[in-house]
Write a structure and sequence with these properties.
This protein has helices at about 5-15, 20-45, 160-165, 175-180, 200-210; strands spanning about 60-75, 95-110, 110-125, 125-140, 150-155, 185-195, 220-225, 240-245, 250, 255-270, 285-300, 305-320, 325-340, 340, 350-360, 370-385, 390-400, 410-424. It is mostly beta strands.
């Protein structure tokens, strides 16, 4: 219990400062308390009537995937880079392991589920293939059907459909700049409350299992608090971020659409290693970090649309003043796709095109690097079977990105990208 004391203290502090979160937290707290009491009573009743179940360690599953890429075919500008998306773009980029994931998960009992995912495709400095933790969390079911859940640990922050969508399932090779810049690596340490009816949870699961490019089950409604400095980074202030999301799948004839809205707010501190010598900023290097986003998903049955747009404010480098300031941001993307069944079992083809734009800062990069992005990516994902996929895409990109060391850096170009993916 002692290890949870700082987290609980931060949670109370965040709730105290935000009236809306106080109201929501009271409602959730009352429900959680009542369900925990009910849980104790249910466990004590009807135990003899239950069949003997397998030990929890026999229900654990181990799976994963690996992505191998090359980005430099038909490259027209080696100075064109995309640090947050894929560091092997441009100069000195070669064949790389973009991701190597192992996923260990399972139910300890009917209401307790755990999920651990390390990655051996991470990098730090000039060292590649570092084994690094991505997810490590526990889901606690608060009712018999696990329609109400608490997720505790390091996990994805429920902001944006594409951020929730696994890279194993996404069509474009990298996430869009506009929404992914909200949370680098999509994850952080926190506590999240999720709610979805059983029927809706089944829809979320089928959109992934049946290969319709779903995002997974992050609830119809989500609310939580998290550190705000992103995964595997130390907390640098006494202010937790707050996030909430509403996303509702709806059946219309043979199609399924999923409109959604989400927002987060908090204070972000630029860490010392991401500050250039001499760059100007407020003394604390602590900045407002607020965003609001809308999503619209038409699952590919067979034609698909995935579109999101967000606005907000956050730290951003100002080249004119050589300073980091709180400034506005805006941007989004739209991905169009088509699902084609092949002649062989499990063979699928997904031609796709994504258009994206972003004007804002990237708080996780040096000096909260400022970005102006306009990009089109068109490609084809060929799923030879459920174990092997090959994706090729051609990118036309215009990226202006500047910080204290990179000034007047305006890059345009195109490149052909190839990715082989192994699922196991």
């Amino acid at each position: 219990m002692e290890s949870f004391t700082p987290l609980i203290s931060h949670l109370c502090y965040a709730i105290k400062r935000n009236p809306m979160s106080r109201l929501i937290a009271k409602a959730i707290g009352a429900f959680v308390f009542s369900q925990l009491i009910t849980s104790v009573n249910v466990t004590a009743q009807n135990a003899p009537a239950k069949k003997e179940s397998k030990p929890w360690y026999e229900t654990i599953s181990l799976r994963g995937y690996m992505q191998i890429r090359y980005n430099r075919l038909l490259e027209t500008n080696p100075k064109l880079k995309n640090e947050q998306g894929d560091k092997s773009w441009g100069d000195n980029g070669g064949v790389s392991i973009r991701r190597g994931r192992l996923i260990l998960s399972g139910y300890v009992n009917d209401r307790i589920y755990f999920y651990i995912q390390p990655d051996f495709g991470s990098s730090t400095g000039t060292t590649l293939q570092i084994f690094q933790l991505r997810d490590a969390y526990v889901d606690l079911g608060l009712d018999k059907k696990n329609e109400f859940r608490l997720r505790i640990g390091q996990s994805k922050v429920p902001y944006g459909f594409e951020n929730m969508q696994s890279s194993q399932n996404r069509l474009p090779l990298d996430r869009a700049d506009a929404t992914n810049s909200a949370v680098s690596n999509e994850r952080d340490m926190g506590i999240f409350f999720y709610y979805a009816p059983s029927k809706t949870r089944a829809v979320f699961a089928s959109m992934v299992k049946d290969n319709f490019k779903g995002s997974g089950d992050y609830g119809v409604f989500a609310f939580g608090v998290y550190n705000g400095q992103t995964a595997n980074k130390p907390e640098l202030n006494n202010n937790l971020h707050i996030v909430s999301r509403l996303s509702v799948p709806m059946k219309i004839g043979s199609q399924i659409i999923e409109p959604g809205i989400q927002a987060h707010a908090g204070k972000f501190v630029i860490p010392t290693e991401n500050r250039s010598t001499g760059v100007k900023a407020i003394k604390s290097f602590e900045f407002n970090d607020k965003r609001l986003a809308g999503s619209f998903i038409l699952y590919p049955k067979p034609f698909g649309i995935q579109a999101e747009y967000n606005v907000g404010e956050g730290p951003r480098y100002n080249p004119a003043k050589d300073s980091i300031e709180t400034r506005s941001l805006a941007g989004g993307y739209a991905t169009f796709s088509y699902r084609i069944e092949g002649k062989r079992k499990d063979e699928l083809f997904f031609p796709f095109t994504r258009i994206q734009s972003y004007d804002g800062g990237k708080k996780h990069e040096l000096d909260a690097r400022t970005y102006h992005v306009r990009e089109i990516e068109s490609g084809l994902e060929w799923q030879f079977n459920k174990y092997f996929e090959l994706t090729t895409s051609y990118v036309f990109s215009h990226r202006r990105f500047e910080d204290n060391k990179l000034k007047d850096n305006n890059q345009k170009g195109s490149l052909l990208r190839i990715q082989a993916q192994i699922n196991f």
